[in-house]
Fold this protein.
Amino acid sequence: MSTEYLLAIESTCDETAAALIDSHGSVLAECVATQEFLHEKFSGVVPEIAARAHLERILPVLDTALKESGIHPDALNAIAVATFPGLPGSLIVGLSAAKALALAWNKPIVGINHIQAHIYACGLGLTESIYPCVGFIVSGGHTSLYRCQEPLGWDYLGGTIDDAAGEAFDKVAVMLGLPFPGGPALSKLAAKGDRQAIRFPRPLLEDKERLDFSFSGLKTAVRYRIAGPSDPSQGAASLDEQERANIAAGFEQAVIDCLIAKAMAAVKKTRAKRLCVGGGVAANTSFREQLTLVCQARNVELVIAKPQWCTDNAAMGALAWEKIRRGQFDPLDLDVQPGLVRPKR
Ligand code: KG4
Ligand code: ZN
């Protein structure tokens, strides 16, 4: 089988990324430009700032990935771009770049679903297919479980009814005076704490039939633990270092317990043999370790995306090969579908 080439673009939130992927699924080159320092003082992603930053980064990122791959644009089969879900301004930058290149180079365009791509990322670099599986996305915008029959065929099983897990990490990190994005910093602080010292609530955990998550109450419990009714940023300053670490550890453990319990419930309900986990929070070391142990004990095959492919990247745009093989190309008037759409059950 001759080798074919794909250029993939990702700009759904605050990472601008491009990757060259061949038809065997090998990632030949990839480039990811972050913009965290621009959002840090706001303790969260500001959509307008993100869109402008994408605009500045998209061409250098594309150029770097193409040069590094050594692939000439003439050799490309298609250009893939994530069009859903995401921030409107951010999505538009990636899609506009994809359209411009498609026109200039006379290549077809393929729009992909960012969440399906996060699940597909679990299989990057593996020789065996990860499907069928339970796909679990735990990121800053999503905490969702799917029954995945194949890369493009899935059913929604459940997800968060309020905050996403990563969002809760980020907000609790702010309360503890940690830098943005909070997940990695909070996890580092938690490693110095006692996971059993403070038991925070585990929302919806007792409702075993329900494959949903809720993290906003947990977040509020942390807030009151830090500062009572006063400003939590003041409260965090008055805590000693061990108490801060214990709060971080107690919070992280509560989130991990909810994530693992519902993932295992989804596996049981669907009788799946394999669980595939992606998204930024899947980079969390304690979560990876604890989930690995639980899956071993229950004889469930676990595939967690490699850490560099947990957070947003363009390599996961390899999903587009599945559409290309089915002849599913998109017209040049393809549009973005923004929003954190919660799929229907
Ligand atoms: O998948 P991602 O890059 O972007 C979205 O699509 O949301 O995920 C970003 C989220 C942020 O909330 C970040 O704090 C969280 O993933 N995150 C982590 C870790 N690394 C990133 N959360 C917990 N522990 C980590 N090590
Ligand atoms: Zn993502």
Remarks:
- The beta strands are 5-10, 16-22, 27-33, 76-84, 109-113, 133-138, 143-150, 153-159, 274-278, 301-304.
- The longest helix spans residues 241-270.
- The pocket of zinc ion (ligand 2) is lined by residues 114, 118, 139, 279, 312 (CB under 6 Å).
- The first strand starts at residue 5 and ends at 10.
